[in-house]
C-alpha cells in the first residue's frame, strides 16, 4: 500500500507533464497578410542569397544540378588481349601444380593456347595474335547540390 501511492503520483505527474509540454498539431499553413513579419533579420538583410529556394512553409532547400560526365570503358577481349597468352600460361601451370583436372578454356584464342602450353609443361612460345584493348567513351550524369 505504501508503494502504490508514490507510483500513482509519479504516473500522474508524468502524464500531466507530457500533455502540457507538447504543442497541439495544426494543419494550417502560415499564409496571408497576417504573417507578413515572420522573416528573421538574416532573411531581411540577405534575402534569398545562395543556391537555396524556399517552399511555401519558408523552409530552405538546396538546388540540385546535374551535369554530363564522360567516362571511359576498357573493352578487353579475353581471348586476344595483349597479355592473354602469358595469363593463360600462368593459370595452366598453376592448375597443373595443384593437380586439377584439365578443362578446356571457354575464352579460346591465345589464352586457351597459353593455358594448354602451361598445363602440359611446354615451352613459353609467346603470343602470336594481339588485338589491342579498346577504350570506349560513355556519358553519364553526375548530380550535386549547391
Structural features, described:
Residues about 30-40 and about 45-50 have low confidence and may be disordered. The protein has four helices and four strands, in the order ααβββααβ. Helix 3 (about 85-100) packs parallel to helix 4. The protein is elongated, with a radius of gyration of 37 Å. It has a domain at about 80-130. The protein has helices at about 5-20, 40-45, 85-100, 110-120; strands at about 50-55, 60, 65-75, 135-145. It has a two-stranded antiparallel sheet with strand order 1-2. The relative contact order is 0.17. The protein is α+β, with helices and mostly antiparallel strands.
Radius of gyration: 37 Å
Number of strands: 4
Distance between the termini: 64 Å
Biggest beta-sheet profile: 2 strands, antiparallel
Strand order of the largest sheet: 1-2
Strand content: 15-25%
Classify the secondary structure makeup into a structural class: alpha+beta
Stretches with pLDDT under 50, minimum 5 residues: 32-38, 44-51
The string of secondary-structure elements, in order, is HHEEEHHE
| pLDDT averaged over residues | 77
Shape summary: elongated
So what's the oligomer here? single chain
Report helical residue fraction.
25-40%
Number of helices in the DSSP assignment:
4
Amino acid at each position: 500500500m505504501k508503494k502504490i501511492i508514490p507510483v500513482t503520483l509519479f504516473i500522474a505527474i508524468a502524464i500531466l507533464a507530457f500533455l502540457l509540454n507538447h504543442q497541439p498539431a495544426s494543419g494550417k499553413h502560415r499564409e496571408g497578410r497576417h504573417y507578413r513579419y515572420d522573416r528573421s533579420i538574416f532573411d531581411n538583410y540577405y534575402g534569398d542569397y545562395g543556391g537555396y529556394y524556399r517552399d511555401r512553409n519558408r523552409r530552405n532547400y538546396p538546388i540540385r544540378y546535374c551535369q554530363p560526365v564522360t567516362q571511359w570503358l576498357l573493352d578487353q577481349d579475353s581471348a586476344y588481349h595483349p597479355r592473354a597468352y602469358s595469363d593463360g600460361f600462368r593459370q595452366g601451370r598453376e592448375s597443373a601444380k595443384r593437380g586439377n583436372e584439365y578443362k578446356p578454356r571457354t575464352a579460346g584464342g591465345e589464352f586457351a593456347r597459353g593455358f594448354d602450353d602451361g598445363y602440359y609443361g611446354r615451352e613459353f612460345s609467346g603470343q602470336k595474335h594481339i588485338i589491342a584493348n579498346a577504350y570506349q567513351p560513355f556519358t553519364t550524369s553526375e548530380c550535386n547540390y549547391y
